[in-house]
Amino acid sequence: MTKKLFSYAKKFLPLIGIAILIILIINLDVVKIKNAFLSIEPIYIVIALSLTLPAMLVRNFAWQLLQKEQKINISFYRSLKIYLIGFFYCSITPAYVGHLMRVPYLKEETGEPYGKLFVNVFIDSALRTIGQYLMILIGAILVFSTFPGLLWINIILFSITLITSFYFIKKERGEKILFMLIKFFIPRRFKDKFYRFVNTFYHDFPRITRLIPPMLVGLFSWLIIFSQEYIVVMALGIEIPFHIFILLFPLANVAGFVPITFAGLGVREATSILIFSTLFAIGREEILVFTLVGFMITDIFPGFIGFLVSLTESGEKKSPITS
User: Fold this and answer.
1) Nearest CA to 134 among 115, 168, 157, 116?
2) Residue 316 has pLDDT above 80, yes or no
3) Which of 87, 101, 156, 268 gives the lowest tally of CB atoms within 10 Å of its CB?
4) Which pLDDT score is estimated for 261?
5) Cα→Cα distances 191→184, 185, 284, 303, Å
6) How large is the angle between the packed helices 76-90 and 52-69, nearest 10 degrees?
7) Distance between CA atoms of residues 317 and 105, nearest Å
8) Would you say 246 and 230 are in contact if contact means Cβ atoms under 8 Å apart?
9) DSSP state, 206?
10) What pLDDT was estimated at residue 20?
């Protein structure tokens, strides 16, 4: 019974976001949505798309800083290709878990242990998330009088993230919990593989102080990406100060991390409509349009580039826990 429920959850949970998006469109003025789309001058789209390469280069640079700290030797160009492939997978998976597809590509390139590479990619994603939490914290303070709950939710999530990270930084503590989870929750025939996988988690584990530079660089990449979104806002003639938008949109963007939809689709749009229609005199249709167009620019476009890059790769990739 449990297996059936899990199977159904895997099939249908990611569709919830699409259902939310459809419901939003049905309950809005479709003509206004169409007119908003058609009102966008192509030059704005071109300008926003032109920032994609800088954003990816900055993100890859942040990842390279972490790679060097963990003694993972790979060229900037090859690292960028792997990052783009991972971005393709994360653009079509719930909660952006597709970024972990970088692991088998790294394994093929470097020969390093799977556990060490898994930790590298996980930390890279976690640092970007923490950077976004810092932006959200400031944004939540700005809208505290209207949405007081957002600040407390962010503080709780941020605290849980920091406490969990601090706990697992220590090898003895981290391995104790992980081995316990394997002992009680992993089937016997898979235990040895998982033990070998976890045994390499702390190989060349990064120093805490050396995580600050990649986190700050990752934060800068968020500024570029949210600037792409803001260009679409400008194209629609929506009047929101840049510094306000850059701190409020992450509130909606992080909602897309909820694993019930592909790359946050639907959830991010609904959250954006709630926040921006409440705080500003903006039509819900225009908000829907700038989030959807922004999604195509910041997620679908680089994901498509990653797809093209993946076509150039050959060889069957292994699962991170099979050897």
Assistant:
1) 157
2) no
3) 156
4) 66
5) 10, 9, 51, 35
6) 110
7) 7
8) yes
9) P
10) 80
pLDDT per residue as tens digits for the range 39-66: 999 999 999 999 999 999 999 999 999 9
* DSSP 8-state secondary structure symbol assigned to residue 317: P
Spatial distance between the Cα atoms of 160 and 106, rounded to a whole number of angstroms: 29
Quick one: tokens of 107? 């394994």
pLDDT of 322 > 60? The answer is no
Residue given tokens 């400031």 in the structure block: 138
Which residue, chain included where needed, has tokens 């970088």?
102
Task: Output the six-digit token pair for 11.
Answer: 């099939």
pLDDT above 90: percentage of residues in the chain: 58
DSSP 94: B
Q: What is the pLDDT of residue 12?
A: 56
Which residues neighbour 164 within 8 Å (Cβ) at sequence distance 6 or greater?
A: none
How much of the chain is helix, strand and coil, in % rounded to 5? 75, 0, 20
Assigned token pair, 68: 């060097």
In this structure, is the dihedral angle defined by the CA atoms of residues 67, 301, 236 and 24, taken in order, positive or negative? negative
Residue 277 to residue 108: CA distance in whole angstroms: 48
HSE-CB at 294 with a 13 A cutoff on CA atoms is 29
Is the predicted pLDDT of residue 320 greater than 80, yes or no?
Answer: no
**C-alpha span between 121 and 110 (Å, rounded):** 14
Distance, CA of 171 to CA of 169 (rounded, Å): 6
Residue 39: which of 232, 185, 187, 220 has the closest Cα? 232
Mean pLDDT over the full length of the chain: 87
Q: What angle do CA 30, 32, 35 make, to 5 degrees?
A: 110
Question: Three-state SS for 262?
Answer: strand
End-to-end CA distance of the chain: 31
CA distances to 46, 65, 76, 109, 250 from 81, rounded to whole Å, are 23, 16, 9, 12, 26
Q: What does the pLDDT average to over 140-152?
A: 86
For residue 87, give the nearest of 305, 315, 293, 317 by alpha carbon: 305
